[in-house]
Write a structure and sequence with these properties.
The chain is α+β, with helices and mostly antiparallel strands. The protein has five helices and six strands; from the N terminus they run αββααβαβββα.
């Protein structure tokens, strides 16, 4: 579905109204969606579609996915939290997962930013280098 400029503008205004101190407020989001669904203005489905996309992007931007081979010790996890909060500001939500296929190291994704210090990533680079010389 193609979303009109007016719908995008309305969704962006709705999104901005849901921010409190620069952070997305769940209660404001619920109220905004409820009000939009009750009033059903012209093009409200397009507004909701774009609003949902903006919310999804904001949640991804404020979520740090930290992947390691083994579970991190509390001190290690705290160092990673501190470093990422310095870089991205307070209010990040952290998700720590274990992925044995990484072989070693840490992979961190915050929004579209990816920091990959895993052995698997290094091996993939070497594999690509050897493949290009064949």
């Amino acid at each position: 579905m193609k979303i009109s400029k007016q719908a995008r503008r309305s969704a962006k205004q709705l999104f901005k109204s849901c921010l409190r101190d620069g952070q997305l407020d769940d209660q404001n989001v619920r109220r905004a969606v409820q009000a939009l669904l009750e009033s059903k203005p012209r093009g409200y489905l397009a507004v909701l579609t774009h609003f949902r996309r903006l919310i999804k992007l904001e949640v991804q931007r404020r979520t740090a996915l930290v992947e390691t081979v083994v579970e991190l010790k509390p001190a290690q996890a705290q160092r990673i939290r501190n470093s990422l909060e310095k870089l991205y500001g307070p209010g990040l939500r952290f998700v720590f997962t274990q992925r044995p296929e990484l072989i070693g190291g840490v992979r961190v994704q915050v929004g579209s930013d990816v920091y990959d210090g895993t052995v698997r990533a290094r091996l993939d680079v070497l594999k690509a280098a050897f493949a290009s010389h064949e």
